[in-house]
Design brief:
4-stranded mixed β-sheet; 13% strand; mitochondrion; 4-stranded antiparallel β-sheet; disordered N terminus; globular; AcylCoA_DH/oxidase_NM_dom_sf; alpha+beta
């Protein structure tokens, strides 16, 4: 009886598994002509638009990802990847086929040429089904792709953006064993040789997508006497003999996303591998990580919405004392409050995204969105486990996976306390 009642609950993450038509990989070129029309419409409109009044191509992005999830991410596959702690290669290929791994990459490099908000929409929608796949897409788009797009040379863009848009994952290597929240106290060094090349030595920890990546953006210090001003970003190919993939972490959650050590031992790279200039790594990382925080916030909102969508139908169908659980007033108050929290978090996420696109300072808003969304995800996932009772406590169904996946939200892209510290700095400045 329990199985019959709950099997339908997995519908939020499942459907008949089938590949999307490759024609969908051209969906963005078909809608790109709508951009100017939409911009003209918004400019000529005298009415104020709601925050969720997406452009035509952003709306298409949302529909595309929802359709992708429906046809390519059944619960059976999501569960299998979680148990095996491994990204399904075919799913990875399909993410590239439909353009989700190069959303903001310009079309000239094979990308979709879409907005930052489009990336945020994709991250949220994927997280409603599997936050692990969501974070893979998030890191690719908001960190790696944007670093190359914003700071790469023409030669670097030709080589790496084309790869990122078509088939290659990239990894962002900042964290080390002794530098987590104090990320720029890193010990990885880059020593320059007489011929202008650099020798990298050090070990990076907790690196997302490192097992599958085709190349790595490595932060290393070229001059420790300058402190963080000596930090430089280097592009290191997977085939470099001085780079090795170390221990793969056996994680609590987001298990389909690989997290490994990246070991650099006398890793020689040319001067053309420097991204953004010598000593510019700190600036690059800070600017990009602020965007990444909005991405993680979107992941947490999607996670909260996903577990909520999974739970409410059960509360409506499950009866106790001849009454649907959803109809008890005490329960109504609880899930109504959860819905308010999810909506508030979503508003913070998209406000930060729009501020970024408008060229405004969004550091405070990104920190707020990341902090609050991760708190909401934890609260909602915990409540949903309680509301589902025994069903929520089993690994057969996806509620407990959402619960495990939400924990990381308070840790990566700046812990909750680091984000609160950032917010506090802005508050003190505002009241000077």
């Amino acid at each position: 009886m329990l199985r019959r009642t709950t099997t339908s609950l997995a519908s939020s993450c499942s459907s008949h598994s089938s590949c999307l038509s490759k024609k969908q990989s051209f969906v963005f070129s078909a809608i790109s002509s709508l951009k100017q029309q939409e911009q003209h419409r918004l400019a000529s409109s005298s009415q104020k638009s709601p925050l969720f009044d997406f452009t035509e191509d952003e709306t298409m992005m949302k529909s595309l990802v929802q359709d992708f999830v429906k046809h390519n991410m059944p619960w059976e596959l999501v569960h299998k990847m979680d148990v095996e702690s491994k990204l399904d290669p075919a799913l990875k290929d399909r993410l590239f086929e439909v353009g989700l791994m190069g959303i903001e990459i310009p079309e000239e490099y094979g990308g979709s040429g879409q907005s930052f908000t489009s990336s945020i929409i994709a991250i949220e929608e994927l997280a409603k089904c599997d936050p692990a796949i969501s974070v893979i897409v998030d890191v690719q788009n908001t960190l790696v792709n944007n670093l190359l797009s914003n700071f790469g040379t023409k030669q670097q863009k030709d080589k790496y953006l084309t790869l990122l848009a078509s088939k290659g994952l990239g990894s962002f290597c900042l964290s080390e064993a002794s530098s987590g929240s104090d990320a720029f106290a890193l010990k990885t060094r880059a020593d320059v040789k007489s011929d202008g090349s650099y020798v990298l030595n050090g070990t990076k920890c907790w690196i997302t997508s490192s097992q599958e990546a085709s190349f790595y953006i490595v932060m290393a210090n070229t001059d420790f006497s300058k402190g963080y001003k000596g930090i430089t970003a280097f592009l290191v190919d997977r085939e470099n003999p001085g780079l090795k993939i170390g221990k793969k972490e056996d994680k609590l959650g987001i298990r389909a996303s690989s997290t490994c050590e990246v070991i650099l031992e006398d890793c020689v790279v040319g001067p053309d591998s420097i991204l953004g200039g010598v000593g510019k790594g700190y600036k690059l990382a800070i600017e990009t990580l602020n965007e990444g925080r909005i991405g993680i916030a979107a992941q947490m909102v999607g996670l909260a919405q996903g577990v909520f969508d999974y739970t409410i139908p059960y509360l409506k169908s499950r009866k106790q004392f001849n009454t649907a659980i959803a109809d008890f007033q005490g329960m109504e108050f609880q899930y109504a409050r959860a819905a308010v929290e999810i909506e508030a978090a979503r508003l913070m996420v998209y406000n930060a995204a729009r501020m970024k696109e408008a060229g405004q300072n969004f550091t405070k808003q990104a920190a707020m969105a990341k902090y609050y969304s991760s708190e909401v995800a934890g609260n909602v996932a915990t409540k949903c486990i309680e509301w589902l009772g025994g069903v929520g406590f089993t690994k057969e169904f996806c509620a407990e996976k959402f619960y495990r996946d939400c924990i990381i939200g308070k840790i990566y892209e700046g812990t909750s306390n680091i984000n609160l510290q950032t917010i506090a700095k802005f508050i003190k400045k505002e009241y000077n």
